[in-house]
């Protein structure tokens, strides 16, 4: 049996959000419309997917309750190809759990961490 987990983000405006993710390298695989506006989209990055659905509220805070985490093979290349206008929350750093990461924020306040495994996590006390 195959099981997958796909995050569905509820956003105020699906079409510009999908375009923003496409600038990061996501592919827009499918959309649905109610005749007036795009109300749903499915996007992929490699073999991972997210869905965007209409009806979300604008963010009230700097960070939403859910973050996305994307594992990559070459964190330096991923950071170098990041479009200049993307808001970087935290630039490249070594995380305590053994990954090298950077964090960006999407237009709806969702944080996206890109990380690459580089070694064993630090021992905790």
Automatic annotation (TrEMBL):
Residue ranges occupied by any VOC domain in the UniProt entry: 3-117
Short name of one Pfam family: Glyoxalase
Gene3D superfamilies hit by this protein: 2,3-Dihydroxybiphenyl 1,2-Dioxygenase, domain 1
Taxonomic superkingdom: Bacteria
InterPro entries, alphabetized: Glyas_Bleomycin-R_OHBP_Dase, Glyas_Fos-R_dOase_dom, VOC_core
SUPFAM superfamilies per record: Glyoxalase/Bleomycin resistance protein/Dihydroxybiphenyl dioxygenase
UniProt protein name: VOC domain-containing protein
